[in-house]
From TrEMBL:
Annotated source species: Paenibacillus gyeongsangnamensis
NCBIfam families reported for this sequence: D_amino_aminoT
Keyword Zinc tagged: no
Needed cofactors: pyridoxal 5'-phosphate
Protein name: D-alanine aminotransferase
Length: 278
């Protein structure tokens, strides 16, 4: 496929990432994953704002202006004739011999590519089971950095136990999943962890809260516990690739009736409409 490498669209074979890239040594970089529906980028501005925030907080300068970068991503999607899929974009602090201090001379290295990815219709319909696990990550989970080892270990922990994902918690307070946010429904109200330093501020999370507001479904951003999760009427996860996926069991115990609930389904329908309106 065609890649975006720095400022240029190139065939993959012509993209050469150095073994001295700090992304490789240190995970010293940031990334974004955009969803493409019908050849169009979904919530592109929100993703760009989050990228700018990640870049600023880890002190990497974006190699191009956000508007220009967005334009290049649109061209990347077109060059790959992508209709349903994702765009992966990463920016590292650049190439330098291995040493912790920021290199004086290095320039950020940007690359992006597209993936064909059908919508997760089966999981969205039938739901997934999840297992709980300690959240062992650092205290800046709001930054979308390349340091995903805890998330990788967490996802494999779930798969090894026949579950679809983990739900992570800090001392019994539920934070998020390995690559998605999590929401519970109790008495018709949605509850989800506040957008602070302990979770990624999911774009899908924000979309769902906006849709809930439009549908006049009450939503509360507050920490909730594992026991509240176990006793919830409905549970679902939100993410760029997961969309709105119901959770039907936690640690082997069935949630709700073991199927997606009415609030989840209403939100899923509204989400469908937001895709169609794109
Ligand atoms: N939480 C984590 C740890 C993630 O990696 C992701 C996305 O990949 C999310 C939440 C969901 O965020 P978004 O809805 O922006 O995809």
């Amino acid at each position: 496929g065609v890649y975006l490498y720095q400022n240029r669209l190139l065939p993959q074979e012509e993209v050469h990432i150095s073994p001295e890239d700090r992304g490789y040594y240190f995970g010293d970089g940031i990334y974004e994953v955009f969803r493409v529906y019908n050849g169009r980028l979904y919530e592109a501005d929100a993703h760009m704002r989050r990228l700018q925030k990640s870049a600023a907080d880890v002190r990497i300068e974006l190699p191009s202006e956000p508007e220009q970068l967005l334009h290049q991503l649109v061209e990347l999607v077109a060059a790959n004739r992508l209709t349903e899929g994702t765009v992966y974009l990463q920016i590292t602090r650049g190439e330098a011999s291995r040493s912790h201090p920021f290199p004086k001379a290095a320039a950020p290295v940007l690359m992006a590519f597209t993936n064909v990815l059908p919508r997760p219709l089966a999981a969205v319909q039938s739901g997934i089971s999840i297992v709980s696990m300690d959240d062992i990550r650092w205290l800046r989970c709001d930054l979308k950095t390349l340091n995903l080892l805890p998330n990788v270990l967490a996802k494999q922990h779930a798969l090894d136990r026949g579950a679809g994902d983990v739900v992570m918690h800090r001392g019994g307070t539920v934070t998020e999943c390995s690559a998605s946010n999590i929401m519970i429904v109790m008495g018709g109200r949605i509850v989800t962890h506040p957008a602070n330093n302990l979770i990624l501020h999911g774009i899908t999370r924000a979309v769902v809260l906006r849709l809930a507001n439009e549908l006049e479904i009450a939503a509360e951003e507050r920490p909730f516990t594992l026991s509240e999760l176990m006793e919830a009427d409905e549970v679902f996860i939100t993410g760029t690739t997961a969309e709105i996926t119901p959770v039907i069991a936690v640690d082997g115990a069935t949630i709700g009736g073991g199927t997606s609930g009415p609030v989840t389904r209403k939100l899923q329908q509204a989400f469908e409409r937001s895709i169609e309106a794109l």
